[in-house]
Amino acid sequence: MARNFAEMSRLENEAGVKLVCSSDTSVRDAQKWEMSSQLARRAFKGSLGTAMVLALAACKDDSGSIASLSSKVTELSGQNADLQSRLNPKIEMVSGEVAQPETFPDTFSMDVSQGGTFEIAGFDVVEDTVEIIGVSGADGSTLAELEGDEGLGGELISIQPNEFDGSLVVNFGFDSLGDVVSLTIQEAASEDLGSIEVSLVESDGVGTGGDAGSDGGDTGGDAGSDGGDAGADGGDTGGDGGDASAGELVEVTGDAPVQGTDAAEEFTITVNSAEGGQLVINNFDVANDSVNLSGLTDVVADTLDDLVGQEGFGGELISVQDNPFSGSQFVNLGVDSSGEIISFELGGVTQDDLSAVAVSIA
After folding, report:
1. 43: which DSSP letter?
2. In Å, what is the CA distance from 201 to each residue of 54, 135, 207, 210, 352?
3. What are the pLDDT digits (tens) for 133-155?
């Protein structure tokens, strides 16, 4: 209570309310106000409203009589809401930039309906809030409640911890160009999901959607390079049950998408935790082409379908998501040591083809 008295001068200036402590405040009045103030506190968010109500609980107004609690709460509610809006403005987030805290608490606002990769630094998991615009299929008041809800394009929202930088990555889906839509919250862990408050807002524009390239695929880290049981060294590859015939070797790098041709081709992909990458193969021929993966550890696979659910980078699980916009399959292998996604995308492949895509592990 002493702290609240000390703050009365500041409260008077900020809210325009004159509070004068009176020495003749009766014990009965003080008790009555103390009990009432416990209810009044619920009408206020933030330390300002709480301090003002506590001050009223022990003081008279300048008219010399105990103020009506209901009228004061009504009056101060409007003043407190105005002060909170000025003290706690929304931070409009921009894709590709790291949003920084400005006040305490903060509301970080992001519009994911048109895509983007968003990031927050200095987020307070107890006090701050994330406003998410454009995810109409989700429902919940905390980040934990959003996980598994419908994201962009009817796919499920997923949340993965990034072991390398101690952050949480929320994957919402693909935008209309097939790019990942995501939010990274720095210095947050899985156990914070139930504490991170979110508010969901409908988008004014037409939102985009799709299956997230990185949703559902857990992010990971460290990976070895000794490989597993290679399809090319005796394991069957392909969906026809036979040994995969070696095609023309084509190296896939992150410099540019690789275009498949009419010839049978074996696309070689090398990935590791130190230098990941997001690789793209277009015009993949399920019947004749194959994929050779180098850099995974303890993975045994003859087909793309075999990879799903096995341990990828950092001990996380490999996942494959369908991209309905580009008509391709996005294979999420985890993240590298910089927190970047390690993946490859096969254009011209459907989910029905997963067991027919020949894979060998080198």
Report:
1. G
2. 34, 8, 12, 19, 35
3. 999 889 999 999 999 898 887 67
